[in-house]
Amino acid sequence: MNAKTKTVRRAQAGTTESAWVRWTLTAIALLFMLLFLVLPLAAVATEALRKGFGAYFEALKEPDAWSAIRLTLLTAAIAVPLNLVFGICAAWAIAKFEFRGKAFLTTLVDLPFAVSPVVAGLIYVLVFGAQGWFGPWLSEHNIKIIFAVPGIVLATVFVTFPFIARELIPLMQAQGTDEEQAAIVLGATGWQTFWRVTLPNIKWGLIYGVILCNARAMGEFGAVSVVSGHIRGQTNTMPLHVEVLYNEYQSVAAFAVASLLAILALVTLVIKSFVEWRHEREMKAIADLPPERPTPAAA
Questions:
Q1: What is the pLDDT of residues 109-123, one digit of tens each?
Q2: How far apart are CA 285 and CA 145, in angstroms?
Q3: Cα 191 from Cα 88, distance rounded (Å)
Q4: Residue 211 burial (C-beta neighbours within 10 Å; 0-12, 13-18, 19+)
Q5: How far apart are CA 71 and CA 223, in angstroms?
Q6: Could you give the 3-state DSSP secondary structure of residue 247?
Q7: pLDDT, position 75
């Protein structure tokens, strides 16, 4: 094989690097995945089952573990729909309209990415804690936010609300407003335009953002740790319960609950991959459609 043929084949493959460079880069990527993803997951599964399936299921059936699982699912069930509404509204406002303060709103959407989750938890303690700004008023009315479920939900909402908005903003900006304007000119109302034009166009990005938001909500540790109070059986989510068990040298129970979190993460990954596959398949089907032929009247 001459040099010209090799160059043509590399160009067809989309790269000009030689085979040994591609194999080296692939081996490095696989090695990193093995060291930082596969081995930790295998270690969690091994430690969780070290004393057999009986001890594994006993750790998951323990009342405090069930309480942590229920609280984690409840928190995600509240935080994700709230972020869904906020994400759509924020993305629609930023992508579809021009107004004063738009850049500031975009910066606020990104704020949780820049602020440490621990700092976010401390902010809620400062605002709603016993010595906080609204603490005395809340105490007078017997309303408890910090060291209770509402504080956990608020902290989770704060750290997760950029995920859906950040998935939708660039998608909506790329799509523009032509289809919405055409629908309105044809007599559609605002709600009809949203349900029949905007929502179908953003559905895959929306689903992808919800998946990421849900994964972060179930796995959040820093902000929840600050506002929860670590009350066993009441305010411990699954990540906090794992920490408590590990600090008490109950390693099998800790890894059992951690393995459940890992399973939820893998399920999320499978759903994410399926959504991406469906999206790519739909885009390919649209690209393969034959172009419309002009009618005789149009011609």
A1: 888 888 889 998 999
A2: 50
A3: 13
A4: buried
A5: 15
A6: helix
A7: 95
